[in-house]
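Reply to dn_fold:

You asked what the input looked like. This is it:
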Amino acid sequence: MMSYLHKVKPVDQRFHEWVDNINETERIDKSIIAFNFGLFESEEGFTMYLNGSKTFGKDDDDWATNRNFEPKQKYFSFGNEFLKDKDWQDILKYAECLVQYYVKSEDFKTSIFAQAIAITVGFDHGELTIIKSQ
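and this is what came back:
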């Protein structure tokens, strides 16, 4: 009998599937120039979300609050098993790695994100980490 843990996909695989699904189902216009993979903590744990903006400011993170683009599947849950014994710094570092890995992947080159001038990761009300910037 297969245990429950063997049925659970790793977080990085689920993240890649989430982003791939957004690429397959969403269309953006050329005015969306920046994307933020935002993070927040709720009672259910840490969650990531995606939004796009028509503006970007390297020295002013307020652009990331623009919601000029929001995919239908806006939220990504890390899952309770993954979140055990992790604090917000662990989640931020892991989220940065997930997005960096995706930006370096072959799938990124044909994604809705490929033409963006900026892609960032960060917690709401915190500093954003720039993953890609032109």
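Residues 1-6 have pLDDT under 50 and may be disordered.
Hope that clears it up.
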